[in-house]
Write a structure and sequence with these properties.
Elements lengths: L1 H17 L2 H28 L19 H25 L6 H11 L5 H9 L2 H13 L14
Helix pairs in contact: 3-4
Amino acid sequence: MDSFIDTFQDWYASLTSVISEEVLIAVGVFSVVMFVGTIIAIPIILSRLPTNYFQHDLDHTWMEGYHPLFRQVGLIFKNTVGLIFLLAGMAMLLLPGQGILTMVIGISLLDFPGKRKLEHKLLTQPMVFQAMNAIRDKCSKLPFNPPNTPSP
């Protein structure tokens, strides 16, 4: 046990010679906040989406019926949140958290060319789709319909 502690202390000393302790603390705090945040946010977001959300042959219009100014502000906010989720998901591939699910939610919030194809590629991975439906089941929601192949 003492050799493990000595090894850890040596590793930590070499790490803090390259990266300051403040940066390590900030990364640790960020990691914990993102982990807890996604544990709370992912079930809320997945439970609010309709079961046919990933049916790519259906058009989903964001804030339909709202004033164009509110719609634009909403789109900017939605894309900003999507980008934050996408970047946080990428970080969670290395840090603790639900990286792939967070990335899927981020991608679903973003608007960019090729979005549907990328979503389809991620959602046709059985573990990803099953994990999303397991979360919906825990929230007493019906499972998502399987994604259709996106049209070109």
